[in-house]
Amino acid sequence: MAKKLRKRLVIIGAGFGGLNVALRLARADYDIVVVDRTNHHLFQPLLYQVATAALAPEDIASPVRKILREHENTLVLMSEVLRVDVEAREIHLHNHAPLAYDLLVVATGARHSYFGKNEWEKFAPGLKTLDDALTIRENILVSFEHAELCDSHSQAQTFMNFVVIGGGPTGVELAGVIAEIANHAMLKNFKRIDSRNARVYIVEGADRLLPTMPPELGKRAQSDLERLGVEAITGKMVTEINAEGVLVGERLIRSTNIIWAAGNQASPVLRTLGAQMDRQGRVVVEPNLSIANHPEIFVIGDAAHCKTKDGAPLPGVAPVAIQQGRYVAKIIGENLVGKQTRPFKYRDNGTMATIGRSRAVAQVFGMKYDGFLAWCTWSMIHLMYLTLYKNRARVLIEWMYGYITGQRGARLIRRASEEESTKSRRAS
Amino acid sequence: MAKKLRKRLVIIGAGFGGLNVALRLARADYDIVVVDRTNHHLFQPLLYQVATAALAPEDIASPVRKILREHENTLVLMSEVLRVDVEAREIHLHNHAPLAYDLLVVATGARHSYFGKNEWEKFAPGLKTLDDALTIRENILVSFEHAELCDSHSQAQTFMNFVVIGGGPTGVELAGVIAEIANHAMLKNFKRIDSRNARVYIVEGADRLLPTMPPELGKRAQSDLERLGVEAITGKMVTEINAEGVLVGERLIRSTNIIWAAGNQASPVLRTLGAQMDRQGRVVVEPNLSIANHPEIFVIGDAAHCKTKDGAPLPGVAPVAIQQGRYVAKIIGENLVGKQTRPFKYRDNGTMATIGRSRAVAQVFGMKYDGFLAWCTWSMIHLMYLTLYKNRARVLIEWMYGYITGQRGARLIRRASEEESTKSRRAS
Predict the structure, then answer these.
(1) What pLDDT was estimated at residue A274?
(2) Catalytic residue list contains B173
(3) B409 — contact with chain A (CB < 8 Å)?
(4) Strand order in the sheet with A90-93
């Protein structure tokens, strides 16, 4: 059976950007290969809910090959891309022969960056993958377990100090939820400690929380957090993180539970494209999201530095990646690669962040919301976006359950006690 | 506020045995301390469903301190017990000072045993904990991913050979479900391999499957499994397990995916009790489940060798542990420790095993069932037992979804591709 030899489109990364390219090209006349390091697409905006034991990993992740199962033209490979050879037009994989492409979409996302202080990572894990989320979840839960085991009050308190570094949406959401866990979910679960003695700190280098949102929403977020018992430290930089805790300026906050939500660094694979890059390791893209001199290569999502009119790059959020994925799919699907096209333009429908169990701040379609109404809007929008997952109903059930009872449904610690000895030693 | 100094009851292990002691003594006049290595009670009979991606860990596990939250007299500690000092009447913990007891219940369960061949473990993980289940789940899913990446047919087949060692209920259930995954859940998910080419083998040293159940049920299980494409090898011993595969007698089955469901070994902590032990490391208990010369120490569940009239010990199954836990709680609650009491007697309500998606064999209240009716019975009984978990509704939804669609809801691989290089190398 002789098949027509079709051009091959390789998509690296099955996040919001890459997946949306593939989804829109279900019937396109290409051999499409989607390569991802993991086997799942992740609904990253809700990752902090896995990290804080409200949702299970299965609620916000779905196997890529299951999502693309009906796409006859699409092959899914679980592999790590080592580098791109732009001259030979092939990608090098760690457990497979090089794979040639005619067109390439690079949607490799970002990891957290420690601004050169990589030694901080072991004390302050970041939140990008399911594995990250489960690590943070276990650290939080294990901390309370350790505190319950302490015979000294001050040692117990060290286990109950939580520091979130970074005052963007992720940091604000994490700080709020940890405070809720201490004040509600854990209540009455312990006999020797009072979980309400937990102290949550959020540290932001800019002079207010949510620096990318309008000032009044940042202020509102701060007062909402303070009502939950969170101490916000703004306008101060973290100078050191070690086994003892966090040094903010001259002040030492003793803690064994530090979460990094501050900086991003794009994937190292991007360096092999030979294109211009910014300080965060993102590739500076052309108005049509391709790279200079290589109209056959597109870079989208958190991997791309896409200039706006005022010169600032677009933010690394899901809606940008989704719209860019659809834009590139249109160019490819309509055979406009290398041709003059209308530049990519981001439609900003708003940003939002939840605070604790039932509050949020939001800027949607130009209007600003806060409080319970904003939280409802936030919940609706996130449920709508969860269409790819059969678990929408489950997430709704979990949220309703959590809202009504203040409990959290996913409080499992996978690690057994003996594996925890390292952490225990750090604090003693 | 001077409190009356109460006697302290320490319970080691929060499985079916230990938890049932604690549950029945909610209002007893004791200081109760429950110590477990993990933070959760696990519904172990459904663990193979987590291992085979039908259920999420959260569906079958619940935090111990949440279950016992309303018990004013009960403290829960997450810690590893190193040894028991029966003379000083205290237990030694790895991250806490020794803990004195007046009464002790040891319900430490069992791990799998490799009959002295511990080097087999890395090639053939067993299934006892949530961590085990997630490891096996990831191995199964990653195997198909590796097969899809293979350019050679024979190499791909190695990744698609699955060997289950042990033909008891767990082995039979695992083999059936893996065959279902290959024949249904994975169908159309891959483009280069046909998941139906997967071969599943089950190896049992006795001359038939399910040797502890009546012969006709073992035969029925074997024919049901064979209809699903499983090859049953009975009456043969495994002589070697290594990176290439399994040697059964003289026959080599090439496989990178081997699961151990054969032997059990009780916890090493039991050795420190100084009591008589059997070959599997279980403590031989008195008729009232205490140990000789120490009426204050009880051993129950998989940790106990409890003789029956015909001389054989009771099997290591949940109903035995539950009934023993309740029996010991009664002795303690009614202040009968050290006194003459009616010996423990096990009420055997039956045994069962599921085969694939909608079949089972069961012996319940003396009657033998097989086929769909047995499967319904199995489902009902397991749902009834899940009372401790709020997730009963979720499990039901997952089962219905799985039954109707043949899909599996929990197909996540936590590990990213690069971490897989070891396994990949083994097979190349």
Answers:
(1) 95
(2) yes
(3) yes
(4) A81-85, A90-93, A96-100
